[in-house]
Amino acid sequence: MTTRATTPKMLPYQRQGEIDYASLEFAPDVKELPPDQMEQSREIREIAGLFAAAFTDFDRRPDVFLDDQTFICYDPANLNVRVSPDIYLAFGVDARAIRPRKLYLPWEVGKPPDFALEVASESTAQVDIRRKPNIYAYIGISEYWRFDPGGRYYQERLWGGRLVNGAYQSIDLTTEPDGVLKGYSVVLGLSLCWDDGWPRLYDPATGTYYENWRQERAARQTAESQRDNVLAERDAARAGWDAERAERLAAEAEITRLREQLHRQSE
């Protein structure tokens, strides 16, 4: 399912030659993890799961690209110039064409990602605050967000910026009576929330939180497994019918042959 109010038409992927992976100074399919990556891994997994449920229908949407592992390259002349957000989203793109390339190349995809998010850790905080906004603005990413579970490293528990005239303008946040901090993302069509250090998504249109994405995924997997079993049973039954029909036709042909043989012998 997609909660976004409008999803742009999928852009055609314009592949521009082969990538010389051997010339890269990094492994495109291995993310460079900070030494304190465990500080942020739970929150990244939770946000990725929420986004997968809300926007990609658990990777079944071919026009939405969600990733937390790959690199965005932003210099066509040098693919080693790269950045890797903790999570990023692109709408209206050919996700199935992007993945085999192992890199997000905006000039081939047809657009930059729409959304990037960083989760705080001690080793990455200053880069996320000082350096990455300029990079993401240069790439043209519409929204950049930061989430700090403990409020220790960013000095802000939640921060969002919307790209305006080449720079990010802070998105207004609200604090609910229960202490939940919310910021509305125009790109997502939802509010990103900080709830006692835990990330959540809130839909202002329905007044509800996304609570059950794991159950939704499990239910989808069960339904697909049941569907596959039904299809397998149908195919097996069809194969049985085809075998039975072939045997019947063979028997009828044999009867016809014997009749013709008897007819010749009686002449």
Summarize the structure.
By secondary structure, the protein is α+β, with helices and mostly antiparallel strands. It has helices at 41-56, 95-98, 106-109, 125-139, 213-266; strands at residues 64-67, 71-73, 82-83, 87-91, 103-104, 115-119, 143-147, 158-164, 167-170, 173-175, 181-185, 190-195, 198-203, 208-209. The protein has two domains: 21-211, tt1808, chain A (Alpha-Beta Complex); 212-267.
List keywords for this structure.
267 residues, alpha+beta, tt1808, chain A, six-stranded mixed beta sheet
Explain this structure.
With 267 residues, the protein is of the alpha+beta class. The chain has 2 domains: 21-211, tt1808, chain A, CATH 3.90.1570.10; 212-267. Helix content is 35%, strand content 22%. It has 5 helices and 14 strands. It has helices at residues 41-56, 95-98, 106-109, 125-139, 213-266; strands at residues 64-67, 71-73, 82-83, 87-91, 103-104, 115-119, 143-147, 158-164, 167-170, 173-175, 181-185, 190-195, 198-203, 208-209. The protein has a 6-stranded mixed sheet with strand order 1-4-6-7-8-9, sandwiched between helices. A hairpin with an 8-residue loop joins strand 2 (71-73) and strand 3. The chain is elongated. It starts with 40 loop residues before the first helix and ends with a helix.
